[in-house]
Amino acid sequence: MPLPRFDRLPPETRAAVLAAARGHFARDGKDAASFNRIIAEAGISKTSAYHYFDGKDDLFAAVAADTAARALAALGPWEDADTERRFWEQLTDGTARLSAHLRDHPDDRAVLAAAGGAADDGGWTARLVENGLRIGLIDPLADRELLTAATRALIDAADAWALARPPLPAARTAETLRTLLTRLWTAPRP
Question: Mean pLDDT lowest for which of 1-5, 24-28, 103-107, 109-113?
Fold first, then answer.
């Protein structure tokens, strides 16, 4: 992650550096992107770049975190639903917003695909699970911590699956996610 000096830059300067790097990483890939070309496009010297980042991997981590935050903002916060129908509608709506963001920002899509690992979701998954438990959608006998971790892993796997393919219709992605979550959350029948 960036060194503390980076956070002291004006917001527009930070945004410009991250945008330049995002474009290079999206176009060339993490390994092939040139740190020197990125910092030249961002308008900072090599000396300054090393005051802000430990190197290209550190810069990529900062870009990936920023891109994940942009995607999470597009997804929107999880708002408690009072009914099962509203719960699934909200999940479908969020999937549509996220799909539209990734369609309209292909650099974000490419960076997230390259990042591979799960990013902090700000508690979104935990709120989703708590809401599902509260309305009786999720089997309450499972350990909440394990259930939240399994739900997060399933969502991460679905994200990786969707990012590895040409953009899929949001409805297909949402339906696939709903099917998998239902199977995870429902108690087996004897």
Answer: 1-5
Residues 148, 129: Cα–Cα separation, whole Å: 6
Do 101 and 69 meet the contact criterion of CB atoms below 8 Å apart? no
- What's the CA dihedral at 82, 86, 87, 89 to 10 degrees? -170
Question: What's the pTM?
Answer: 0.86
pLDDT at 189: 66
What's the rounded Cα separation, in Å, for the pair 26 and 28?
A: 6
Cα(63)–Cα(27) distance, integer angstroms: 14
C-alpha closest to that of 153 among 108, 117, 99, 110: 117
pLDDT tens-digit map of 107-146 = 999 999 999 866 778 899 999 999 999 999 999 888 899 9
Listed residue (71, 62, 30) closest to 159, CA to CA: 71
Cβ neighbours, 10 Å, residue 50: 15
Q: How far apart are CA 187 and CA 190, in angstroms?
A: 9
The answer to whether 67 and 111 are in contact (CB under 8 A) is: yes
Q: Specify the pLDDT at position 190.
A: 64
Q: Around Cβ 162, how many Cβ atoms within 10 Å?
A: 23
Tell me the C-alpha to C-alpha distance, in Å, between residue 41 and each of 47, 59, 105, 108, 173. Answer: 15, 14, 19, 18, 36
